[in-house]
Amino acid sequence: MIRAMAASPLRNWRSVWTPTGVQGAPRPALATAHSRPSGPASESAVARVARLGGGLPAPLLMVAAMLSFQLGAAVATGLFDRVGVPATACFRLGVGGLLLLAISRPNLRRPASELVWLGAFGAELAVMNLAFYEALSRIPLGVAVTVEFLGPLSVSLMQSRRLRDVLWVVLAALGIAIFAGPTSQGLDPAGIGLAALAGAGWAAYIFTAQRVGRAWKGSQGLACGMVVSAILLIPFGAGGAGSVAAGSGLEIVALGVLSTALPFSLEMAALRTLTARAYGVLASLEPAIATVVGVAALGQSLHAADVVATLLVVTASVGATFDT
User: Fold this and answer.
1) In sequence order, what are the residues at sequence separation of 6 or more whose Cβ sits closer than 8 angstroms to the Cβ of residue 322?
2) N or C: the chain end with fewer CB closer than 10 Å?
3) What's the CA gap between 117 and 212, in Å, rounded?
């Protein structure tokens, strides 16, 4: 899902989120629930994307944004065999970044220090997206998103000093133990490890996004960061990009739209009225939504142990939300 970039307190990590991000895709987002971008260009950009929501309730817009992001991940799996995982990640970041550049229209004349932070941000996005897609090529979508979700959840719990937060840590750990244990139905350990790496990248992204979000208005930092990350992935995906068939162009555009432009627009509309807590609770549903998309769109099998593990992580995330 698209994740938010801002200078909000880290303990309220869902104000910093984003995607979603894997999904990452991992997936990244662009504004806080309470941010007010300044300047006429930023205001017009926010107004343009927020109008997409029309009069629909904010919770429905959030669910639609998460569904769009996970459908984008499903589209990505169809490109893995044809162009390779690195090229797919490069296309997703490049197309999505260019679409966001068209929306945000950033001013690229920046101090060198801001460009250094932007480069680090782009590197994190590259690692997060590549690791997530590599995981997705080995394990089901719902499992990959659930394991990746531990990254931002860990950031949230690290900021807490409440004893009851140990419960949320235990629940999340039990969920991952089920995925990695003897009831895992033969899940690829490398896939689990790569999803965990994507989650670690997501956690690092949250910290860097705060710094970038203070320097760039609205979605400008994310748009530029995605373009930087796509450039960084070119050496890894160049071979696969050369084998793109003529009919794959529409899929690549759909990947950028479903994974970035559409969920960004829907989430921006929802964030106009959602509280930070409501946003956090709704965002906690993403592993469940990813599981449903994996079954319905990709025909992936769903075992009872997978359902239990996903519910444990979702419960831990919701619990952490109400404790912040």
Assistant:
1) 277, 281
2) C
3) 7
Distance CA 35, CA 118 (A): 20
Beta bridge partners of 25: 22, 23
* pTM: predicted TM-score of the whole model, two decimal places: 0.81
What pLDDT digit, counting tens, does each position of 108-160 carry? 888 888 999 999 999 999 999 999 999 999 999 999 999 998 888 888 777 76
**8-state DSSP, 181:** S
pLDDT confidence bin for 7, thresholds 50/70/90: very low
Residue 99, amino acid: L
Rounded to the nearest 10 degrees, the angle between the axes of helix 58-83 and helix 141-148 is 110
pLDDT at 165: 75
On whether the CB atoms of residues 145 and 287 are closer than 8 A, the answer is yes
C-alpha 273, offset from chain centre: 21
CA dist., res. 47 & res. 38, Å (int): 12
Q: How far is it, in rounded angstroms, from Cα 195 to Cα 74? A: 16
Q: Which of these, 66, 9, 39, 1, lies nearest to 206 by C-alpha position?
A: 9
What distance in Å separates the CA atoms of residue 109 and residue 260, rounded to the nearest whole number?
Answer: 25
- Of 126, 98, 106, nearest in space to 28 by CA: 126
Phi, psi of 212, rounded to the nearest 5 degrees: -65, -40
Place of tokens 């009225």: 273
Residues contacting 177, CB < 8 A, separation 6+: none
What's the DSSP call for residue 22? E
